[in-house]
Amino acid sequence: MPDGTNRHRVAIVGAGGIAGHRHVPAIRAQGGRVEVVSVVDVDGDRAAAFAAEHGVAHHHTDVGAMLAADRPDLVIVCTPPVAHREGVRACLEAGAWVWCEKPPVLSLAEYDELAALERDGGPYVGYVFQHRFGSAAMTLRRQIADGTLGRPLVGVCHTLWYRDHAYFEVPWRGKWDTEGGGPTMGHGIHQMDLVLSLLGDWEEVRAMMGTLDRRVETEDVSLAAVRFASGALVSVVNSVLSPREESYIRFDFTDATVEVSHLYGYGNADWRWTPRAGVTGSGWLPTDDVDSSHTAQLTHYLDAMDRRERPPASGADGRRSMELITGLYQSAVTGRPVLRDELVPGNPFYDRLSGAPEIVPETAEAAR
C-alpha cells in the first residue's frame, strides 16, 4: 500500500443490486486499502448468497450483531431510504465511519440528528454523490473557484429519465414515508448535487410538481427556478416520464458555456467547453480522464479516512442537496417562493418532505 494509507475493514449493509454492481467493483478497485469483512441483509438467504458470490467471510441479518461481531472501520449502507436513519445511527454510535447511498435520509430533521452523532476526527457519515468526482467536474470546479470562465450567470439542470409502472410496484417506492419523495428526491438528486457542488449555496427556489401518469403518492415530475447566492439563475427539471432519457447540465458564464450530456455517469467526452467570441479557451479542457463513479468517490472518502478528516459530500456540504429538495417541495406544495433560511426546526417541511404531519397508528385509530 502507498505510504500514509491504511487497510480498512468494510461491511456492506443491503445486499441488493447497487451493492453488487456498484460498490463491490469500487471496493475492488482500491486494491489493498479495503477488505470486505461482512455483509448484512434482512433476507438471510440473500446475505449468504452475496457473501458466497463476492468472497465475504461473514454475513448477518442484523446491523447491531454485525457491528459487535466484526467491528468494521467503514460501513457502506445500501438499503432502501427508509432504513438509512437507523442503520447510519447504529454505525456511528459503534464508532464506524459510514458511506450511505442516496438519498441521505428522509428529512432535514433526520440529517441533522445523524450529524449530531459525528465527532471531530471521525466517525463521519458521507453520502454517495459520485457525479462530483469525475475529472471534468473537478476541473470545472477549479475554474469556477479561480474565475477562469468569468461569473456564472445561467444554468440548466435536467434529469429526464423513464421509469415504467412496474418500477413502482416495489412496495417502498413512490411513497413519502419510505422513499421520502419522487424523482426530485430519488433521481434528480445526483444532478442537483453536482450543480450545488459547483455553484455553491442557493438562496431562493420557486417550484411546481405534478403526479401526471405514475400510480404513486409522490410527484412523478417537478420543475423549479433556483436563485444562487452568486446571483446565478438555474432551471431544474426532474422527471421519470421521459422516453428519451438524458441527464443534462449547462452553465453559461460570462466567458464560456460548459455542458454535459449523459445518462447515469459521464466521462470527459460527454462534456463541452465553448468560449464566447474573442476568448480562446486555451488550456480549459481536463488533463486527467476519470469517469464519475462510485470508485472515484470512494478513493476520496478513503483518503479522508486516512487523514481523519471530514469526507466530501458530508456535513454542511452534503446537506445542500437535502436543503434544495426540501425547499423545492415546500414551494411546490405551498405555491410560493421559499428561502433557504426558512428551512429550520418548526417548519413542517423540515420534518417531512410532504409537509404533512406523520400519522402514527395510534393517532389514526383515535381519529376514526
The main β sheet shows up as:
8 strands, mixed
* Quaternary class: single chain
| Strand composition percent | 15-25%
Supply the CATH class of the largest domain.
Answer: Alpha Beta
How many domains, as an integer? 2
What CATH architecture label of the largest domain applies? 2-Layer Sandwich
Beginning-to-end CA distance, first to last residue: 64 Å
**What's the overall geometry?**
globular
CATH topology of the largest domain: Dihydrodipicolinate Reductase, domain 2
Give me the count of strands. 14
Whole-number radius of gyration? Answer: 21 Å
Helix-residue proportion: 25-40%
Find the CATH superfamily of the largest domain: Dihydrodipicolinate Reductase, domain 2
Provide the structure class.
Answer: alpha/beta
- Unreliable stretches covering 5 or more consecutive residues: 363-368
Report the average pLDDT across residues: 95
* Physical arrangement of strands within the biggest beta sheet: 13-12-11-7-10-9-8-14
> Number of helix segments?
13
What does this structure look like?
With 368 residues, the chain is of the alpha/beta class. It has two domains: 138 residues, Rossmann fold, CATH 3.40.50; 183 residues, 2-Layer Sandwich (Dihydrodipicolinate Reductase, domain 2), CATH 3.30.360.10. It has 13 helices and 14 strands. The strands form two sheets. Strands 13-12-11-7-10-9-8-14 form an eight-stranded mixed beta sheet, with helices on one face. It has a six-stranded parallel beta sheet with strand order 3-2-1-4-5-6, with helices on both faces. Strand 9 and strand 10 form a beta hairpin. The protein is globular, with a radius of gyration of 21 Å.
